[in-house]
Amino acid sequence: MKFLILALCFAAASALTADQISTVQSSFAGVKGDAVGILYAVFKADPSIQAKFTQFAGKDLDSIKGSADFSAHANKIVGFFSKIIGDLPNIDGDVTTFVASHTPRGVTHDQLNNFRAGFVSYMKAHTDFAGAEAAWGATLDAFFGMVFAKM
């Protein structure tokens, strides 16, 4: 059954249209330089995600936002997300890497859904998201569907 779910999710990623991929890549290109803002929005949306990072756990989000550690980690996360977006629709290897690094940390499906919600909130506030919402929805559904099937 898990194989069937994974196959369907892989098919969903492969089924992204060239226009959807272009729209996602273009809209993300406009914000990927604001890694700190993106990670801040995600942590703000769900503080339990921040708590998963030992260097940030228990600290005031506004006070760490300007730190070098926060910036470095934000760039690492957004850099990996940029890789995934650049690899569309062929993201199976990226998903495997993501799952291998997040499963041992006890990251939950709820936290990943909340990460998604925080990211989407950021995108809505910083891009013309209305024109890209359907493409982002399909892309995020494919990515998180594949992740959840492997976790």
From TrEMBL:
InterPro entries referenced in this protein's UniProt entry, alphabetically: Erythrocruorin, Globin, Globin-like_sf, Globin/Proto, Mb-like_M
Keywords carried by this UniProt record: Heme, Iron, Metal-binding, Oxygen transport, Signal, Transport
Signal peptide: 1-15
Domain Globin: 15-151
Highest taxon of source: Eukaryota
Keyword Transport: yes
UniProt GO molecular function: heme binding; metal ion binding; oxygen binding; oxygen carrier activity
Cross-referenced Pfam families: Globin (PF00042)
Membrane-crossing segments per the record: none
A single Gene Ontology CC term: extracellular region
Similarity comment text for this entry: Belongs to the globin family.
Protein name: Globin domain-containing protein
Protein's organism: Chironomus riparius
